[in-house]
Design a protein that fits this description.
By secondary structure, the protein is of the alpha/beta class. It has 3 domains: about 140 residues, Rossmann fold; about 30 residues; about 140 residues, Gun4-like (Arc Repressor Mutant, subunit A, Orthogonal Bundle), CATH 1.10.10. The protein contains 14 helices and 9 strands. The strands form 3 sheets. Strands 2-1-3-6-7 form a 5-stranded parallel β-sheet, with helices on both faces. The protein has a two-stranded antiparallel ribbon with strand order 4-5. A two-stranded antiparallel sheet has the order 8-9. The longest helix is centred in the middle third of the chain and has 16 residues.
Length: about 375
């Protein structure tokens, strides 16, 4: 089997590059070959093509999380897209993913919930020798003779609702997570692992359902946890129109979305991001909108909107799709949902509708 060209792909916010470069230099001194954008992308390159080729040629993906947030990688490529590629490769080829918490981050942020399935490494500084050694061991893995599991923080297994189609997959994922650090698990040990993580009912304590308008988000949470994306989209419209003091069937005005209750917007977005593993959510749409040249100023930008529409599948064959043509599953482009019927599609494609959603994507709490 052909060996990967790179030992680790270093995915990071551009603002964190100085710290990531120091870590890359340490890895090189210890005989590892990291993929770093600064060294692999040249003038005239197709950035997206080079980046995803680099991931394909790497044994491990390291994802840096900092106080600078998700941001962008190489300015015009959203980090969320890289995460999704990591996830797909992990499922298909056993590609290892190592979340790395940079100084100031003590736990996997809720927005990155889907990364908590992997043990992470926490840095107190870019020169944190213990964290650097743990990273080296994590990259080399057991095939290089490492006999101990890196000293890293492991989160509690989050409580989720497995649907019938997910139950077997979740069990296999759980066993695989143990096989990464204990490859020779017996049948008895396997049963003990599965029995220690029983299938449980909808989470009640793990989800923050706060609302400053007295809205109950339980139904939205349960629909998203069950991956009933279409009904969740409709429920999103219902709770949002209620939060601005209107009734079902009403439209949103731009100022209503620009000034949408902060707590409620964070709750709605957090639920979409969490239960879609980062595939859906208003913050995901905003990230992509900014990456195609849009600005969070509340002003309608026709070119940026068209680029967003192309990127997230709202425009097909140069035409805005109807609500009946929306793809309500994760095979859709990243950021495809939510649309909340009554927001953009299915109501006529007048500029006033686009101005309203532009206002939402400009919200300071996304």
């Amino acid at each position: 089997m052909e060996q990967p060209k790179f030992d680790v792909f270093l995915a990071h916010n551009s603002l964190d590059k100085p710290e990531v470069i120091k870590i890359a230099q340490y890895l090189k001194k210890n005989g590892l070959n990291p993929w770093l954008d600064k060294e692999q992308i040249f003038a005239g390159d197709n950035i997206q093509k080079v980046v995803f080729q680099g991931i394909s040629e790497s044994k491990v993906g390291a994802f840096f999380i900092s106080q600078n947030g998700l941001g962008t990688f190489q300015e015009n490529l959203e980090l969320g897209g890289i995460i999704q590629f990591f996830l797909k490769k992990n499922k298909a080829k056993g590609f290892r993913v190592i979340p790395i918490l940079l100084p100031g981050i003590n736990d996997i942020p809720e927005d990155f919930y889907y990364l908590s399935q992997w043990a992470w490494i926490k840095f107190t500084s870019s020169n944190d020798e213990e964290a650097l050694e743990n990273l080296i061991r994590g990259i080399r893995g057991r095939s290089a003779g490492v006999q101990e599991q890196p000293v890293i923080a492991i989160p509690e297994t989050p409580q989720i609702i497995p649907t019938p189609s997910q139950s077997n997959k979740n069990a296999l994922d759980l066993l695989n997570s143990h096989l990464d650090v204990q490859p020779n698990i017996s049948a008895v040990q396997a049963r003990e692992i599965l029995n220690s993580h029983p299938v449980i009912q909808p989470p009640t304590a793990t989800d923050n359902l706060d609302s400053e308008k007295g809205i109950d988000y339980t139904r939205l949470r349960d629909l998203l946890a069950a991956e009933n994306w279409k009904e969740a989209d409709k429920e999103t419209y219902r709770v949002m129109i209620k939060a601005v003091g209107k009734k079902g069937g009403d439209y949103f005005k731009p100022d209503e979305l620009l000034n949408f209750p902060c707590t409620d917007l964070r709750t709605i977005d957090r639920l979409w991001v969490k239960y879609s593993n980062g595939h859906f959510g208003f913050s995901v749409q905003k990230e992509i909108y900014l990456s195609v040249g849009g600005k969070a100023d509340g002003n309608y930008d026709e070119k940026a909107w068209e680029k967003l529409g192309d990127r997230i599948g709202w425009i097909v064959n140069n035409s805005w799709i109807r609500y009946s043509d929306v793809t309500f599953d994760t095979s859709s482009p990243r950021g495809h949902l939510p649309l909340f019927r009554g927001g953009v599609l299915g109501l006529g494609y007048c500029i006033e509708r686009f101005r309203s959603i532009t206002s939402l994507l400009s919200h300071r709490d996304l």
